[in-house]
Amino acid sequence: MTKKPAKTLPPPAGALPEELEGLGSTEEDRPAPADPPVSESPCLPVPAAPPVPPIRPFSIDVPLADPEIGYIGLHVDVRLETHQAAILKRLARALTLSHATLANGRHVEGNGGAVRWLLEKLD
Fold first, then answer.
1. Where are the domains of the chain?
2. β-bridge partners, 107
């Protein structure tokens, strides 16, 4: 009858192998971090940004009535026609590209910001 070798249990989680026991306990014992590998290939040129289309000023006369006493709605939920949405997108993009700001100092971003900017100009 042959004797089977005794089973060895794996070390507990977080235990170090014997050859590493005691290392890393102080800053001096820790190995220095390896430097990242240096690439031998030259840097590729960054492609140029696409040209910005010209932004042309546009002016219209808008009628405004005297303020009415009563409820003032603070929310507008409206479905636009396709051509109206395209015009609003053009306005929003032009305001963003020209770094326009609202009265509170925030940059105009998106359709909502464009509507706010337009209403501030009518004030």
1. 82-122
2. 101
